Amino acid sequence: MTITWAFVRKELATWRQDPTLFVFLFAAPLLMQALLSDAFSGIIGGTGANQTVPGFTVMFGFYVMMFMGTSHYREHASGAWSLVKASGLSRATMAIQLAIPYFVLSSAQMALLILTGWWLFGATINGSLLALAVLILTIAWAAIALGLVLISLTRNVSAMQNLCQLVVLGMGAVGGAVVPVRLMPAWDRPLAPLTPQYWAVDGMQQVLAQRGGLVSIGPNLLVLAGWACVLSIIATFAFDPGSQRRVAIR
């Protein structure tokens, strides 16, 4: 626990010194919401923010995993990861230690984006706040678990960042985070439910625009939790703390 808390404090200090993280995770999605909310109002026949706020909140919520991966490579570069390995912690514990700060960051980011979208762009919050909180935490869990798997698949920081970009953009676009699924080409619509982003965006729209509660988004939570559990299991076995990595951070 002491090592985990020390790691969290170190990450907090790093975030304070890295404005690009906050520009990318907060300013960028807010800019997308500002640019597209009015346009979607005429397309979906309602408040456009009820598409852009859930959509870009979910998409950029998954982007947190790229910063988690960059942090992991930075720890290798500084030699700090060698100290963690020498502590005798299990593989699962080390993966959890890496994940905790970014799980909190992703959850806080999504909550702030929803609140700001309601305040600035007119997104509604008609449903249960408890359901929204549970949904946000489940989405963050799935995003971080996916990130751990992608980190495990790469051996240099450029490959990790490129893979995260490809996965987040690809799954987000297919899953309806950018454009409503019903407006997608017919061949693409059956693919949407195969992504966690589809269930995340749909669940968030139910809570924000349709007075949804825990019961109504139950299927969404189950699918997202299923994704998170499977990815967490894969990450536990795939995450190799002793693997050699090219650690140059550009």
From TrEMBL:
Keywords from the UniProt entry: Antibiotic resistance, Cell membrane, Membrane, Transmembrane, Transmembrane helix, Transport
Gene Ontology annotations for the cellular component aspect, listed alphabetically: ATP-binding cassette (ABC) transporter complex
Superkingdom of the source species: Bacteria
The keyword Transport appears for this protein: yes
Record keyword Hydrolase present: no
Its membrane topology: Multi-pass membrane protein
GO molecular function annotation: ABC-type transporter activity
Every ABC transmembrane type-2 domain range: 20-242
Transmembrane regions: 21-44, 94-121, 127-151, 163-183, 221-240
Subcellular location: Cell membrane; Membrane
InterPro entries given in the database record: ABC2_TM, ABC2_TM_bact-type, ABC_2_transport, Nod_factor_ABC_transporter
GO BP terms in the entry: response to antibiotic
Principal location listed in the UniProt entry: membrane
Family under the similarity heading: Belongs to the ABC-2 integral membrane protein family.
Name of the protein in question: Transport permease protein
Source organism of this protein record: Nocardia ninae NBRC 108245
